[in-house]
Design a protein that fits this description.
Layout (H helix, E strand, L loop, with lengths): L15 H8 L15 E5 L2 E4 H20 L7 H32 L6 H16 L3 H10 L4 H22 L7 H10 L9 E9 L6 H16 L4 H8 L14 E2 L5 H8 L6 E7 L2 E11 L6 H31 L2 E3 L2
Antiparallel strand pairs: 1-2, 1-7, 3-4, 3-6, 5-6
Helix pairs in contact: 2-3, 3-6, 4-6, 7-11
């Protein structure tokens, strides 16, 4: 039997790690298949290999590698990369073990996924990958040394996990109206319209002046601003920025998007006030708050769905972990270093 109807367009896993395991490995490159293999874990009678782990972790590995290379605050990049690689692999091993536990329990309970749902998901994949061109899709999987039957098996496993989570976990979740309201009342700051600000800027570039001229330029701008002259007019005359015709008038920005040196001064400024010069990116800048908005509390009716979804996710995670812990206690699991 099928546990519940699963629309073929639904592609969202119940948890991020399931999405990782389900979608990161539709295809396997020929280069990946040359990895030396070995056993990393045994779950009941299922063996999990090093090749499976590297296949499932490759996207996260690539992301971490790029992140570490581009993070100037990381001194020992090789060590950081090796640490990230180890952590990723250990995490994927645990996730693969949990997936095998779910699939085994799914089968034990007598559940299965009808072929028509597997074919629907496969058709979706063809559309996503090649715009619905089956011939091109067959070429893609042939180059990846994957057969259609192997792909169908991966889809079957993915759907089995989705259905298991829906039946065993999600159907047990209940959220009362008072529970949602209590969460809203207890976390007022969480349900506010983000405060936003629109800024104007005058830029003085120290590279264009000697020390004396730079002081004179900054003094001239400060005096003009203090006298109440129009900010845009001053910017047109004195700013060294390419956007000086409009005083670098920015779109609405959330305070969290502002550069660190600007956040605190601007939070305390009212509309129309200016500050400066502030050192920013090697330049001296005068900042004017052109307008502010937001920062108000959203009504409960506006965020009711958001609140319920947050509670649902928390309960789902807790129930899923509880379910997995029970499965782990009943299973034979061995990790191999």
């Amino acid at each position: 039997m099928i546990i519940r109807y699963l629309h073929p367009q639904r592609k969202t896993f119940a948890f991020v790690w399931m999405l990782l395991l389900g979608l990161s490995s539709w295809f396997t490159s020929a280069e990946e298949q040359q990895f030396a293999d070995g056993v990393v874990a045994i779950v009941n009678d299922k063996v999990i290999t090093f090749f499976e782990v590297t296949k499932h972790s490759r996207f996260v590995d690539q992301y971490d590698h790029s992140r570490i290379l581009n993070d100037s605050s990381i001194a020992d990049k090789e060590k950081a990369w090796q640490d990230a690689l180890r952590d990723n692999r250990q995490s994927v091993v645990r996730q693969l073990v949990d997936q095998e536990l779910i699939l085994a329990d799914f089968k034990t309970k007598g559940y299965f996924v009808p072929d028509k749902y597997i074919e629907q998901r496969l058709n979706d994949l063809v559309v996503d990958q090649t715009g619905g061109d089956w011939e091109k899709f067959r070429d893609v999987i042939a180059k990846s040394r994957t057969t259609l039957d192997e792909l169908r098996e991966r889809i079957r496993r993915q759907l089995s996990v989705e259905l298991y989570v829906g039946q065993i976990v999600e159907r047990r979740i209940n959220i009362s109206p008072s529970e949602a309201r209590d969460r809203y009342d207890a976390n007022p700051g969480h349900y506010r319209v983000p405060a936003q600000v629109r800024l104007q800027m005058i830029v003085v570039d120290p590279d264009k002046y000697d020390e004396s001229s730079l002081k004179d330029r900054i003094s001239t701008v400060r005096t003009a601003l203090s006298s109440g002259q129009d900010f845009v007019s001053i910017a047109k005359e004195y700013s060294d920025s390419a956007g000086k015709e409009k005083a670098d008038d920015f779109d609405w920005l959330e305070f969290s998007d502002l550069a660190e040196p600007l956040q605190q001064p601007i939070k305390s400024m009212a509309t129309g006030e200016f500050t400066g010069p502030i050192s920013l990116g090697g330049k001296k800048v005068f900042i004017r708050v052109a307008d502010k908005k937001g920062g108000s509390q959203r009504a409960f009716d506006e965020v009711r769905t958001q609140v319920r979804n947050e509670i649902f996710r928390e309960k789902r995670e807790a129930l899923m972990e509880n379910t997995l812990e029970k499965l782990r206690r009943k299973a034979y699991i061995r990790y191999i270093d």
